[in-house]
Write a structure and sequence with these properties.
Serine Threonine Protein Phosphatase 5, Tetratricopeptide repeat, mainly alpha, 15 helices, 254 residues, elongated, disordered N terminus, single chain
Amino acid sequence: MKDTMTPSPLSLVLPLALLLAAAAPAAAQSPAEAETRFTTGVMHLREGRVDLALEDFKRAAKDDPKNPYFQKGLGLAYAAKREWKNAISAFRKALELNPYYVDVRNDLGAALISSGDREAGKREFVSAFSDPTNPTPEISARNLGQAYLEEKSYEEAVRWFKTSLGRNKEYPDPYLGVAEALLATGRVEEAVVQLEAGVAEIPADASLHLALGQALYRAGRFSEARTRLEEALKRDPGGPAGRAASEQLRQLPK
């Protein structure tokens, strides 16, 4: 169930579209070639061409080493290559250049945890969550929930996932996370309740229908499970949620 319900920490890095939008005012003060390199790097990274993205971000940062958005882009590219030391260095440089660029603490925390320095990573998430200027505190709280979930500190995980939902009920990840933490401790019906709330808030999200179907299956509520799994398959027929739902449907009693 873990593979279908909960993304890895690095999947929590802020969307590249937000990086590009946030960078626009600062990039306008950079050399034109550096701006172009940065924009092209974002495009390459979004489309999975990580090596090309890395080269463009490197050149942009060389042309304007004082632009924190270029450093964040560089950090994201290094993180995509799992070069944690370089990613951490770039994210720290972005924060050094702009201490108010709070979003980067989410990226830095994820990179630190992936590098094995879990306590430092969690401290970054706490700092980000506690900062009143953080535009996405729900992501910071979700990251903390994910970190505690991986450490099997299930009560802390539940607490942080619920904190994330308290900030943004339309964010699907914490519904998945809190359900996984509850299922890990045998609280199946509580997990069902959380996922039902998620489906009610975000009915178009196939991963929530899948997770709810899986939880209902575990609860022995097979008819309801079938309904949710079929909905997941309908909403994501060729994607990971749809494929997982199809596999789970084959296991349901006739």
